[in-house]
Amino acid sequence: MCLAIPGKIIKIDGDTATIDYDGITKTAKITLITPKIGDHVLVHAGFAIEILKNKEKTNKLLENINDNK
Amino acid sequence: MTTNNTNNIITKINSIAKKINKPVKIMEVCGTHTNAIAKYGIKQVIPKNIKLISGPGCPVCVTPQKTIDITVHLANNQIPIATYGDMLRVPGSEMSLEQAKQNGATVLLVESTIDAIKLKKDHPNLVFLSIGFETTTPMSAWGIKNGLDIICAHKTMPEALQTITENPENQIDGFLNPGHVSSIIGVKAYNQINASQVIAGFESEDILESILMLLIQIKNKEKKVENQYSRIVSYDGNLKAQELVNSVFKKSDSEWRGIGNIKNSGITLKNKYEKHDAIKKYKDILKNLPETKENKACKCAEVIMGKIEPKECPLFSKTCTQDTPIGPCMVGSEGACRISYKYNN
Ligand code: SF4
């Protein structure tokens, strides 16, 4: 239900964006965010809900985890 | 799960679990996490003393039976209904929406409120059965602003977490907080909850890393909220979405299947939008709503609270299967029974 799928914005037309999901394109509303073309976004139930801040995973965290702490 | 990084995380999990050296109960409160944990076999790679249990994170499962009955009753009284796919098969006291449809009622499946608005052209008095947590609420708010009538069954997560934390019977050591709910409400929404919490992403490594972060908190007896899913979740969350939701809805108490009433854990329409509340609009039809009869044999209430595993329900995979669901936990794609059935664990 709370599943959200990442895709890349390739076109913006008013409150609707065309999103490329690895070759399949679909539209989604961008009422909830202020994206630009090229942004990677997360789409849930027809709406982009967030812009991915960093496409790479943030496993930098792990480097700071010291299990002897 | 074979990358070096994954192995590295698993090694660290093992080492900390050994140091904790007692059983640890971690609850995931998002059905998408329950699914990912089963799909990636996470339970099989973590140490035995770390127990992952599913909480009330499947919106279909926590929707009270009365809400299903109300929707079925409206459908049987010529009100066209639209809803998300999983809701169709949830058994009501008399029948499911799918059975109402087979009997001639207009019941339409949609993937978004955008689709529901489009359907209003052919069905002007369409009612949308609106379920889900904070991830899905902004879409309903948008629908209402565009003229959609709804049965509002939305629920909010932090209040449920608070209730689970406060009940000493539950004894949960830590929570994996829902990633996409958190993208809307932000890290700040959990600050008041006195429990070890990590907001987690949905890939196998995200989940393992979040478990590791939780174990470190548990070992150090820390109770705070950390954010593993920072590529999506910010401290404040999606302010535009929050503003949209707050312009349409106000907080209300809400009834959860398996938990009961939780103060401020739901939302209802603000006065300005009350005319879109289908329960008020069709109160005359609903005067004749038959009494709700719950199937006492179904153990969903215990499954939802992580008190029993699906396979401990006597009906599991005997009379209750994916094709013949008896309770909502076997219907929702995020329901613990359905996930257990699918992954055979
Ligand atoms: S297996 Fe079926 S009957 Fe048992 S708790 Fe799950 S949904 Fe209910």
Give a nutshell description of this structure.
In chain A, 6% of the residues lie in helices and 45% in strands. Chain A contains one helix and five strands. Chain B has two domains: 23-296, Rossmann fold; 300-343, no CATH class.
The number of distinct β-strands of chain A equals: 5
Summarize the amount of helix of chain A as a percent range: under 10%
| Relevant CATH superfamily of the largest domain in chain B | HypD, alpha/beta domain 2
Largest interface: A-B, 29 and 55 residues
Largest sheet of chain A: 5 strands, antiparallel
The sequence of SSEs of chain B as H and E is HEHHEHHEHEHEHEHEHEHEHEEHHHH
CATH topology of the largest domain in chain B: Rossmann fold
Gross CATH architecture of the largest domain in chain B: 3-Layer(aba) Sandwich
Q: Quickly count the helices of chain B.
A: 16
Number of H- or I-type helical stretches of chain A: 1
Structural write-up:
- The complex is a heterodimer of chains A (69) and B (345).
- Chain A is mainly beta and 69 residues long.
- Chain A has a single domain (5-67), classed as Roll (SH3 type barrels).
- Helix content of chain A is 6%, strand content 45%.
- Chain A has a five-stranded antiparallel beta sheet, with no helix packed on it.
- The longest helix of chain A is centred in the last third of the chain and has 4 residues, at 60-63.
- The radius of gyration of chain A is 15 Å and the shape is globular.
- With 345 residues, chain B is an alpha/beta fold.
- Chain B has two domains: 23-296, HypD, alpha/beta domain 2 (Rossmann fold), CATH 3.40.50.11740; 300-343, no CATH class.
- Chain B is built from 16 helices and eleven strands.
- Chain B has a five-stranded parallel beta sheet with strand order 2-1-7-8-9. Chain B has a four-stranded parallel beta sheet with strand order 4-3-5-6, sandwiched between helices. A two-stranded antiparallel sheet of chain B has the order 10-11.
- In chain B, strand 5, helix 8 and strand 6 (149-154) form a beta-alpha-beta unit.
- In chain B, helix 7 (113-119) runs parallel beside helix 8 (137-145) and helix 8 (137-145) crosses helix 12 (239-248).
- The longest helix of chain B is centred in the first third of the chain and has 17 residues, at 4-20.
- Iron/sulfur cluster binds at residues 298-300, 303, 310, 313, 315-316, 320, 326-327, 329-330, 337 of chain B.
